[in-house]
Amino acid sequence: MTYRQTTIQIGKNGLTEGIIENLKLAFTTHQVVKISVLKSAGHERGDVQKIAEKIVSELGKKYTYKIIGFVIIVRKWRREQSRDK
């Protein structure tokens, strides 16, 4: 089973409203979006975690994320997901 995915980069401006809008637009045609956090956005684990949590809170309960290195993988589900972590 293959999932259609796209990649978005977060740079020195950090997480902006434009990036959130691009993510919403990307999820109209894709199930999985990879988000690369560049060095200029802050290359610490805590920064990446905060960015991922903010993205998912902005998108809604149908989205979950996984962090691998400095890449955030966000997935859209058909139903709302519980966020027990």
Summarize the topology:
Layout: E1 5-10, H1 17-26, E2 32-37, H2 45-59, E3 63-68, E4 71-76
Parallel strand pairs: 1-2
Antiparallel strand pairs: 2-4, 3-4
Please explain how this structure is put together.
The N and C termini lie far apart (27 Å). It contains 2 helices and 4 strands, in the order βαβαββ. α1 links the parallel β1 and β2. The protein has one domain: Translation Initiation Factor IF3, CATH 3.30.110.60. The protein has a 4-stranded mixed β-sheet, covered by helices on one side. The chain is 29% helix and 28% strand. It is an alpha+beta fold and 85 residues long.
Quick structural summary:
The protein is α+β, with helices and mostly antiparallel strands and 85 residues long. It contains two helices and four strands. It has a four-stranded mixed beta sheet, with helices on one face.
